[in-house]
Amino acid sequence: MTATAESLRQALREATARLMGVEEEYLVVDPVTRAVAPRAAAVVGRAAASLGERVCTEITQFQVEAKTTPCASRAELDAELRRMREVVAAAAREEGLAVVASGTPVIGDVVPPPITEHPRYGVGIENYRALHDEQAICAGHVHIHVPDREQAVLVCNHVRPWLPVLLALMANSPFWSGRDTGYAGWRILAWSKWPVAGPPPYFGSLEHFERTVAALTASGALVDPGTLFWDVRPSARLPTVEVRVGDVPASTRESVFLALVVRALVTVSLRKVEDGDPGPEPPAELLRVAYWRAARDGLGGFGVDPFTGAPRPVAELVEELLDHVGPALAAAGDLEAADTGWRLLREGGSGADRQRAAHARRGALTDVVDDLAARFTSND
User: Fold this and answer.
1) Angle, alpha carbons 342-348-353 (nearest 5°)
2) What Cα–Cα distance (Å) separates residue 177 from each residue in 36, 161, 180, 199, 357?
């Protein structure tokens, strides 16, 4: 066995201890009209009695953000996510409200949204202005423990080509304020208008990363390091690589599946970095097109190979991703769970597919919101 092969096996064994955490953003809705309701602060106030600082308001008054603690195992993460969602849902019911996990509001007058009062948001509004008009959007963020920031920057290079696949896999935002957008994942289109969003540049080192961030800050594009909104990044506040490309998953099952795949992807990428591989560099223009196609077609359509530009079935690209991370999933004991998660998504459709199916039953958008509310604390 070569030294490289042995080092890979050692890294994969260590994957079982690599901590992961999830942040999710939810929308507060009126259970009668099913429109989004600007009462997130009341829901957060009640939920904080159980979750403490793990639940907070977001930039608009429609949104609640909640986060798990760092988890070592699939079972631990599943339990944390279930409890987190149950607490938030119960808090909403006590206020006569409901919560849903959707990348965009299905019903409601959301442009411009009511902004949460906070000094940081005030600075952001002064800086970014009307870009906030479409910020009632919700993502799911996965954090994986990578304490060495030099390694974290290079890991992002390896994750970067897979971002469109993760985007298609988690597409859960076909509707926007009462209309079908024609896209499976509209959230990412609204988000892409920001000056520092989407896939990050390719970085050769931590120094290159920090030099670029300093230039972006000097230009006025960043309010603070937290407004570095790239879809994979070294976290500004935690010793993690944060993958934030996907819409918030409709159910805990999908959220756990996403976290397992991301952890395995980061684990495989980290081993490549440690072996001296700085990562592939697909052309930025093809990566952008791959994003657009993933957002439009979602799980059931065609994606774009970011290296060749060739259209390929998204299911084929997902299979390729799972093959790529399979050794890390197996080492962590998560291979069967990931295979099951993929099978259920393949057979039952993505969040966007299910939203449209709920709408198709009677042509009523209220049915979409009801379906999302039912899935919020269920395991599908």
Assistant:
1) 110
2) 9, 31, 9, 26, 18
Taking alpha carbons only, the member of 114, 353, 115 closest to residue 254 is 353
Handedness of CA 328, 329, 330, 331 (dihedral sign): positive
Pick the closest to residue 116 from 65, 67, 66, 50 (CA basis): 65
Domain that includes residue 83, residue range: 3-376
Task: Give the residue carrying structure tokens 């906070």.
Answer: 118
Q: Is 151 exposed, middle or buried (0-12, 13-18, 19+ CB in 10 A)?
A: middle
H-run or E-run covering 98: strand 98-100
Query: Cα(58)–Cα(69) distance, rounded to whole angstroms?
Result: 19
What is the pLDDT, as a whole number, of residue 225? 83
Tell me the pTM. 0.94
CATH number at residue 154: 3.30.590.20
d(CA 302, CA 332): 31
pLDDT per position as a tens digit, 137-183: 999 999 999 999 999 999 999 999 999 999 999 999 999 999 999 99
Q: Write down the pLDDT at residue 60.
A: 96
Q: How many domains does the chain divide into?
A: 1
State both tokens at 9. 């096996």
